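Box S2. Input/output pair 1.
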Amino acid sequence: MKNRDGNRIVLAILIVVFAIYNSIIYTKNTSASSAPLLSKKGIEGEKIWQKNNCTACHQFYGLGGYLGPDLTNLISNPIKGEEYAKAIFNSGIKSMPKFNFTTQEKNNLISFLKEVDRTGFYPNKNVKFKSNGWVSIKYK
């Protein structure tokens, strides 16, 4: 009987500690300002991206489909950029369909891709592995 009572006391203490810990963590006022927010045009571009299921073929940061290229840094790519992207949106190439987007839709998609591009590099060649196992990454 003593052993059962001891287990119940330990369990009760763990539950109280867990409740206190969660109340501290989840009621703390934190600012989401560190996360980049999308502009109004960026949000509209994201809606177009989602409506047309672009992630089925394309990736951001290597996540998504593998039929098309990763578009994380398409806009800042010196060989490609905005005009290249706008041309591809409507004409399509290889297995990419023609979408016939309006000028406004293309501009919104470009805004979305610009804002994704600002979030970092992929693949990130500015990574240094430290001898202690930590990794130092350069972000945009």
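Box S3. Input/output pair 2.
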Amino acid sequence: MEMDDNEEDDFKDRLNQLYLAVILRYRDHIEEKENLSVAELPRLVTPESQLVSRTADEIKGEEYVYEANFYEASLKAQEFVRDKIDGVLLPVQFWILPDETIKFRLGDSIDNSILLCSLLIKLGNPSTKVLISIREDTRKAYVYCEFNNSIYLFDISEGVDAFQTKEDMLKHVGIDENSTAYEFNDKMFLDIY
């Protein structure tokens, strides 16, 4: 028997509710298996993965030259993440890899920052890092890179700012001795505070 649109939407809603019930029932088990130490976060940055590579190639276009085109390409990558990936808060703490973020067009702010970092590295900038700032109960994710003697800070929802020094950038985002902050990319992890 074929369903009309209303019946199909009702079925999808009920199926999603069932999936949510299963996830919530096994939440503790899922979160235990998904728990990564912060030092393991670099393995989430995947510039060489299939969908990240394909997306970076689309952003580059035909005549891409890193020195001439990286800044504009980085803005396109930031726009891609901002406009094409919907923000979502999952009912469980679950790490989403960049290819999954692209495939499902969903991710939380950290997932989206990890995707942007992966894209910028694939666009040719190995200095790119995810920067996480935690103050009290608020966690904020950024991406930054060095290019042409400046430091560019990407806040996916707010845009891009340029700084002369890393200290100026950290001060701008409110990172100080009263914060917890760390940065990472596919090659490294560093506690800042």
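Caption for Box S3: Strands lie at 86-87, 106-107, 129-135, 138-147, 150-155, 159-163, 180-184, 189-191. The mean pLDDT is 89.
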